[in-house]
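User: Please fill in residues for this 417-position structure.
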C-alpha cells in the first residue's frame, strides 16, 4: 500500500491563563462569607479526585493553608465515585498519581470505600455520601467545570457532579449511572441539592482550564450559587476547550489513549463519538474511521473508551486490565465503550487495514489526521488532502515538507509530543 504523504505542524489556539492561581484561591476564600458559620477547631473536608486538573495541588495547598490560618483542621476527602476500584487503597493510589499525598499537602487523606444512604430524590433515586464527609463540620467542594464526555445538560462535570457522583463513592456512582443518560442529566442537580441540604457544604471552588490544560480562571461560590454559576462556567469552558482543526476526516489516528487524557480514554467532545446505545452521535467532527495505537501506562490498564475506535493494535490490547476496564464501564452502563475493535499485530498493519476499509484504491488521497492524544493537540500531522485547508488556518504552522507515512519495525514513526 502507498500510505499518504504527511505534513507535521504546530496547532496553537489562543488561550487565556491565570498568572497567580494560589493567590486567586486565597483571595476568593478571604472574601467568602461562610467563615462566619465556622467555629475554631472545626474539621473542614476538601474534595479531591478528578484526573488531570493541572493546578490541583497548588489550589488544594492554598485552601489548606487558609483553613489552618483560620484555626481549623483541614482534611482531604477523595470524591471520585467508582474510580480507584471504589477502595481506599485505589483512591490513595490515584490521588498520589495526581501529586495529592499527605506529604505534599501536610494534611490527612481520609480515603474510604464506604458510603451512607441518607435519603432519596425524584422517583426513588437513592442519595449516597462518603461516610467520612458526614464526620466533617464543613465541606469545601473543589473541582474543574468542563463539558462531560457522555451527556450535555445545563450542569455537566463540576461541583454538583462532584457532590452527587464523586462523594457518593461507588454506591452513588452506580445509583446515578443505573438511570442512564437521562438520569445523569436530571438527577445530578437533584442529588447535589439534597446533599447540600443535609450536609454542611460551605463553599465551592470551580476551575476552568484553557485548551492547553492551563488554569484560565478560578471561581468561588456559596452553595446556593452552584447551579446558576456552573451553567455560566460550563459555557466558558466549552468556548475554551480544544477541538480538531478539521471537521471532516476519513481517518483520525490517535497515538495514545488513557484515563490520564480523558475519563473516556479519548475525549468524546474531541472525536465526535459517544457510542452510547440509543443516543445520537454529535454532528461534528465527522470522522469515518478512528484508529488508536497505544494505551498510556498512566492509565494503569484501564482502557475504557477503546470501543470508541474502529481499529487498534495487539500492543494496546496486551496492556489492558480487563477487570479494571469492565468495572469502570459497567458502573457507567455504557458497555459499547469497552468493546474491542478490530486489532492487528503492528501499527502498519492496523493503519493499512483501516485505509482499506474506506474503500477505493486511492489511499494516498485520504483525509488523515494524526494526533498524540485527545488532551494535547499542539502537534499534529495531516495528509496532503488537508494541506490547502491547513494553509488557510491561522492557528496552524506547517513545519517543513511532507513525507510519506513511515514505520519503524511496524510502529508508526514521526515526532511525538
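Assistant: Residues filled in for all 417 positions:
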Amino acid at each position: 500500500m502507498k500510505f499518504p504523504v504527511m505534513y507535521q505542524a504546530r496547532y496553537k489556539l489562543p488561550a487565556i491563563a491565570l498568572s497567580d492561581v494560589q493567590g486567586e484561591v486565597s483571595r476568593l476564600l478571604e472574601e467568602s462569607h461562610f467563615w462566619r458559620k465556622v467555629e475554631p477547631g472545626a474539621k473542614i473536608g476538601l474534595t479531591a479526585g478528578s484526573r488531570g486538573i493541572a493546578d490541583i495541588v497548588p489550589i488544594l495547598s492554598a485552601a489548606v493553608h487558609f483553613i489552618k490560618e483560620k484555626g481549623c483542621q483541614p482534611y482531604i476527602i477523595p470524591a471520585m465515585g467508582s474510580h480507584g476500584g471504589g477502595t481506599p487503597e485505589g483512591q490513595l493510589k490515584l490521588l498520589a498519581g495526581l501529586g495529592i499525598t499527605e506529604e505534599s499537602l501536610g494534611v490527612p487523606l481520609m480515603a474510604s470505600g464506604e458510603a451512607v444512604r441518607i435519603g432519596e430524590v425524584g422517583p426513588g433515586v437513592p442519595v449516597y455520601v462518603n461516610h467520612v464527609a458526614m464526620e466533617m463540620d464543613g465541606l469545601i467542594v473543589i473541582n474543574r467545570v468542563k463539558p462531560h464526555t457522555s451527556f450535555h445538560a445545563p450542569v455537566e462535570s463540576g461541583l454538583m457532579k462532584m457532590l452527587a457522583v464523586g462523594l457518593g463513592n461507588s454506591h452513588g456512582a452506580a445509583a446515578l449511572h443505573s438511570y442512564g443518560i437521562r438520569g445523569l442529566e436530571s438527577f445530578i442537580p437533584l442529588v447535589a441539592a439534597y446533599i447540600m441540604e443535609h450536609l454542611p457544604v460551605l463553599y465551592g471552588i470551580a476551575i476552568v482550564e484553557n485548551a492547553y490544560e492551563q488554569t484560565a480562571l478560578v471561581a468561588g461560590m456559596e452553595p446556593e450559587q452552584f447551579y446558576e454559576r456552573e451553567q455560566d462556567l460550563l459555557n466558558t469552558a466549552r468556548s475554551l476547550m480544544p477541538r480538531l482543526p478539521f471537521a471532516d476526516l476519513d481517518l483520525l489516528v490517535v497515538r495514545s489513549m488513557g484515563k490520564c487524557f480523558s475519563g473516556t480514554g479519548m475525549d468524546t467532545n474531541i472525536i465526535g463519538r459517544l457510542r452510547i446505545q440509543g443516543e445520537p452521535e454529535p454532528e461534528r467532527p465527522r470522522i469515518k474511521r478512528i484508529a488508536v495505537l497505544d494505551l498510556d501506562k498512566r492509565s494503569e490498564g484501564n482502557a475504557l473508551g477503546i470501543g470508541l475506535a474502529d481499529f487498534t493494535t495487539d500492543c494496546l490490547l496486551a496492556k489492558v486490565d480487563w477487570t479494571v476496564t469492565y468495572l469502570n464501564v459497567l458502573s457507567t452502563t455504557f458497555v459499547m465503550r469497552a468493546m474491542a475493535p478490530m486489532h492487528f499485530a503492528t501499527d502498519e498493519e492496523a493503519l493499512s487495514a483501516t485505509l482499506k476499509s474506506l474503500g477505493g484504491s486511492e489511499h494516498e488521497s485520504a483525509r488523515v489526521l494524526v494526533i498524540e492524544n485527545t488532551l494535547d493537540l499542539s502537534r499534529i500531522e495531516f495528509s496532503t488532502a488537508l494541506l490547502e485547508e491547513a494553509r488557510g488556518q491561522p492557528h496552524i504552522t506547517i513545519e517543513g515538507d511532507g513525507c510519506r507515512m513511515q514505520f519503524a519495525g511496524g510502529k508508526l514513526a514521526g515526532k511525538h509530543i
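For context: The first helix runs from residue 21 to 31.
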